[in-house]
Amino acid sequence: MADQPALHTGSHDLPVTPALEAYMAGQWAATPLPADARVPGYAHFPARRAKLAAAFPGERLLVPAGQLKVRSNDCDHRFRPHSAYAHLTGLTGEEQVGHVLVVEPDGEPVLYLRPRSDRTGGSAEFYRDRRYGEFWVGRRADLGEAARLTGLRTAHLDDLPKLFTGSVPTRLLAGVDPVLDALAGRPRAEHAPGDGRFAAAVSELRLVKDAWEVEQLQLSVDHTAAGFADVVRALPAALRHHRGERWLEGAFNARARAEGNGTGYETIVASGAHACVLHWIRNDGPLDPAELLLLDAGVETDTLYTADITRTLPLSGTFTPAQRDVYELVLAAQNAGIATLRPGASFREFHRAGMRVIAEGLAEWGLLPVSAEEALSDDSGLYRRYTLCGSGHMLGLDVHDCAKARAGTYLDGVLEEGMVLTVEPGLYLQPDDLTLPAELRGIGVRIEDDLVITADGARLMSGALPREAAAVEAWMGDLLG
């Protein structure tokens, strides 16, 4: 890391004359951040950092925000800090590029950052550097401001390489920042022995949400519900457009950007048989009033917490008999899964409960070549031809939160009060599946809701959106007039 960052000038930049450089170096008014500004949730972060430090006594821990990634030529993707960094610092903005949280062996956290450029110190970065310059991408905090914002001791990013020259045991969250991976002597995305434990630890810190996190998730859910209503209101125009899925994607994404940081993941707008593609994000199809629309979307708050909700809607406003049959089987599976949620229950229990309902329904329809019990057996799983994926996951800063947690604390663990998760069974009846009667082919249904585990069960966070078929029809009718 050089004393001054390199100037990333674009092809449209003009040369800077010595006269202009001298003129740019002075007569700028002070623009300090408010002295009382703090990151949202300020009081909750010290305990998280202390818990992480206690898990690795005597070791130095590095949690990077990450680096910019090129989208095309000289244009970068919009930057979002790594979730572990955001969870431990409260810093979530696009200006966090390259910053690193360091927890020293004695437990003291230090934030290494690229501070705001000194406009009077001879640096031209503030107006010439298109990646980091204030005139190009906006203001950054200086070291003192960052310390007040976070409550952390701060240091210049240029001092970070010194941490790799001593003999202090050091753990890096690898694969996040290629600059740090190189400093640590590790190829990109290659974890040194023990790093898996560190990645698991920062992931497991997020398994149980505190009250502030639950508030942020509820906010994201509420904004998402408003976005779903926007989509329904946009249906008449979308039905007339040759790429109606894109029209609806735009309607939801406008709400996400207006109310939060954006979407928590790529919005799925899948009409007709596209709903049978589990991660359909092309969203380039037309809409047919005779078909269903599967909308899987979530607003990410400015604090980076995301909702994850799916509704399957009849584009005509009314389910056909076949569509209703599929929908009500999926809803029954979801209800069965939700009924299992409580502290102490196995995480996998809600999936097993939902899949039993699915298998029994498929058997009753005569679609399975074996009984439901046989299809559910460990050496069979034939029902999965029509429902391949799992039925839910943890939710938080990542849509699939806590993904690096050890199986024993997550997938093979038990639920605890404060965990937030989704329950989302689905049926995906492929349009070319000859085991299905013609009237069922090409129908895809998923119903997904967000829930927080409470002391005696679970609270449905996304209950503002209807789930029952008749209620969905009535809701759509009200919105469409």
Any overview of this molecule?
The protein is an alpha+beta fold. It has 15 helices and 17 strands. Strands 6-5-4-1-7 form a five-stranded mixed β-sheet. The chain is globular.
Structural class: alpha+beta
Beta-strand level of the residues, as a percent range? 5-15%
Low-pLDDT stretches are 2-6, 188-193
Largest sheet: 5 strands, mixed
Biggest sheet strand line-up: 6-5-4-1-7
Q: What percentage of residues falls in helices of 4 or more residues?
A: 25-40%
State the end-to-end distance: 60 Å
Report the total helices: 15
Overall number of strands: 17
Overall average residue pLDDT: 94
Q: Which outline best applies?
A: globular
Provide the gyration radius in Å: 25 Å
Please write out the topology.
Elements: H1 18-24, H2 45-55, E1 60-64, E2 70-72, E3 75-76, H3 83-89, E4 100-103, E5 109-113, H4 125-128, H5 134-137, H6 143-150, E6 153-156, E7 170-172, H7 178-183, H8 195-204, H9 211-233, H10 235-240, H11 244-259, E8 262-263, E9 268-271, E10 292-297, E11 299-300, E12 309-314, H12 321-339, H13 349-364, H14 372-376, E13 420-423, E14 426-429, E15 443-446, E16 449-453, E17 458-460, H15 469-480
Parallel strand pairs: 1-7, 5-6
Antiparallel strand pairs: 1-4, 2-3, 4-5, 8-11, 9-10, 10-12, 13-16, 14-15, 16-17
Short description:
This protein has 481 residues and is α+β, with helices and mostly antiparallel strands. It has 15 helices and 17 strands. Strand 4 and strand 5 (109-113) form a beta hairpin.
Descriptive key words:
single chain; 481 residues; alpha+beta; five-stranded mixed β-sheet; 15 helices; 17 strands; 32% helix; globular; disordered N terminus
